[in-house]
């Protein structure tokens, strides 16, 4: 079978890597891909959000399956356009992608379906937002309604910070129309967990859980990023927490998709805050997480094409998901200046990973890399995700950092505490905790 992967980050390299090991897959295309996907797939020079060109190319290539990495093409309706040409897409329709594309709409939907989420109020008038913020308890969270590449969320500890956030979003339009409407939301204390489920229009199946590290620096300091590392399994997970997440989050979200006729076929990523009162929904993403995908995919034994086809054909009920009983750790290597002003064009040197000799238990996923006249160079913020696995978390961590050691470029930056510290506490081996 032929598969098209849309996107060009480490997540998409991980998707190509999983497809490469899949006996049913003969040919992989990546649009636009990166220097890593070029080793596994035919890179097509088309931007991930250029839906017309993607559809045009796909009509010629006739992929049996298209897997979409980022949210922008989903929110712009790639699944609808491809669907009209009879091309199956793993990823929701435009209407369903609003679950990520509008935080205000999703907050209302969560409320209607009884999904636990923080109290929030929406505003499209900055004066009303400011007046409300002044009397709402602090800390509070100010969120742009629309897509802002993960940057439209501000935690304000006092009114001066809240005012800055509200005026930046609504008056200065820092993220354009994304800040036309905002939410002022109550702050929740707890540990964040990324939860993934496969949705088709008949049922859902839990895919897995991972922890993501959002801040740039060790000890969760510095600005928020797209994610600096991830690991699984989560030390937080108990059978009762999984049951709560199923009952209060995924089963209600799935019921909402059916009732609202959203035609959700793909992976749904629920960003959760696990609090003393149980799990709360922070946000929904209509795609795999990055870097969570880079640890989730190596934890699955069931071939990716089988998973995606079951979803696209509404046959999740017949899918038997098999996982590797392993720990997986991913460490993101970022360029100088990330996240605010990532430098591009630095020359990258790769040496053989120390674990590459035999029985390698790791892989280096490219993100923002490109090859120019034979030379490998950085091309954006998150340049690689170094991934390692093992029977124990400590082994997985060691293998991931061995993969990091193989990379060198000026200004490279990575966190040293992935999978060793979580929300300020040491991480215990999950199977022994
Ligand atoms: P979101 O895009 O809504 O997930 O927000 C981005 C990040 O902001 C989350 O990953 C959390 O770290 C933080 N955040 C969002 N909402 C809340 C909340 N209600 N309480 C505490 N932290 C939050
Ligand atoms: N790792 C967070 C995200 O993919 O949105």
Q: Tally of extended strands? A: 25
DSSP helix count?
A: 12
| Overall pLDDT level | 96
CATH architecture descriptor of the largest domain: 2-Layer Sandwich
Helix content range: 25-40%
CATH C-level class of the largest domain:
Alpha Beta
N-to-C span = 43 Å
CATH topology of the largest domain: D-amino Acid Aminotransferase, Chain A, domain 1
**CATH H-level superfamily of the largest domain:** ATP-grasp fold, B domain
**Ligand kinds:** adenosine monophosphate, glycine
Structure report:
This protein is an alpha+beta fold and 433 residues long. The protein has four domains: 2-94, Rossmann fold, CATH 3.40.50; 119-186, 2-Layer Sandwich (Dna Ligase, domain 1), CATH 3.30.1490; 191-318, D-amino Acid Aminotransferase, Chain A, domain 1; 327-432, Glycinamide Ribonucleotide Synthetase, Chain A, domain 4, CATH 3.90.600. Helix content is 28%, strand content 28%. The protein is built from twelve helices and 25 strands. It has helices spanning 10-20, 51-61, 71-75, 78-84, 94-101, 103-112, 126-135, 159-170, 239-259, 292-296, 304-312, 393-405, and strands at 2-7, 27-32, 42-43, 65-68, 89-90, 120-123, 140-144, 153-156, 182-186, 191-199, 204-212, 215-217, 221-224, 229-232, 266-275, 278-285, 327-334, 349-350, 362-366, 369-372, 375-378, 382-390, 407-408, 421-422, 425-426. The strands form seven sheets. An eight-stranded antiparallel β-sheet has the order 16-15-10-11-14-17-22-19, sandwiched between helices. Strand 1 (2-7), helix 1 (10-20) and strand 2 form a beta-alpha-beta unit. Helix 7 (126-135) packs antiparallel against helix 8 (159-170). The longest helix has 21 residues, at 239-259. The mean pLDDT is 96. It binds adenosine monophosphate (AMP) and glycine. Adenosine monophosphate binds at residues 118, 141, 143, 153, 185, 187-188, 192, 214, 271, 273, 282-283.
């Amino acid at each position: 079978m032929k598969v098209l992967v849309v996107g060009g980050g480490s997540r998409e390299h991980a998707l190509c890597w999983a497809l490469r090991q899949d006996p049913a897959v003969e040919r992989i295309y990546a649009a636009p891909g990166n220097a890593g996907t070029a080793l596994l797939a035919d890179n097509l020079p088309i931007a991930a959000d250029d839906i017309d060109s993607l559809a045009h190319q796909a009509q010629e290539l006739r992929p049996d399956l298209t897997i979409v990495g980022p949210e922008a093409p989903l929110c712009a309706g790639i699944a609808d356009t491809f669907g009209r040409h009879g091309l199956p897409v793993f990823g929701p329709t435009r209407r369903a992608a609003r679950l990520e594309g509008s935080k205000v709409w999703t907050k209302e939907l969560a409320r209607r379906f009884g999904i636990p989420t923080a109290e929030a109020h929406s505003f499209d008038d900055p004066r009303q937002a400011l007046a409300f913020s002044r009397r709402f308890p602090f800390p509070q969270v100010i969120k742009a309604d629309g897509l802002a590449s993960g940057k439209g969320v501000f935690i304000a500890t006092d009114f001066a910070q809240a005012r800055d956030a509200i005026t930046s979003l609504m008056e200065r339009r820092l993220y354009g129309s994304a800040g036309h409407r905002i939410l002022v939301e109550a702050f929740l204390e707890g540990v964040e967990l990324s939860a993934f489920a496969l949705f088709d229009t008949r049922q859902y199946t839990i895919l897995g859980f991972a922890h993501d590290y959002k801040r740039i620096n060790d000890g969760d300091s510095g600005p928020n990023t797209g994610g600096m590392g991830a690991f699984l399994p989560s030390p937080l997970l108990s059978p009762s927490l999984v049951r709560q997440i199923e009952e209060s989050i995924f089963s209600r979200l799935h019921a909402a998709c059916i009732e609202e006729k959203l035609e959700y076929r793909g992976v749904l990523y629920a960003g959760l805050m696990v609090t003393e009162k149980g799990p709360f929904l922070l946000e929904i993403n209509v795609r795999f997480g990055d870097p969570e995908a880079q640890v989730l995919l190596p934890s699955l034994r069931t071939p990716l094409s089988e998973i995606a086809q079951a979803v696209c054909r509404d046959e999740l009920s017949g899918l038997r998901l098999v996982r590797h009983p392993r720990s997986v750790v991913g460490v993101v290597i970022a360029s100088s200046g990330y996240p605010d002003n990532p430098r591009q064009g630095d020359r990258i040197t790769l040496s053989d990973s120390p674990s590459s000799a035999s029985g390698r238990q790791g892989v280096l996923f490219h993100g923002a890399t490109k090859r120019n006249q034979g030379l490998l160079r950085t091309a954006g913020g998150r340049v690689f995700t170094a991934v390692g696995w093992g029977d124990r978390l400590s082994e997985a961590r060691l293998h991931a950092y061995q993969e990091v050691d193989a990379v060198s470029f000026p200004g490279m930056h990575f966190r040293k505490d992935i999978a060793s510290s979580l929300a300020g506490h040491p991480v215990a081996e999950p199977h022994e905790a």
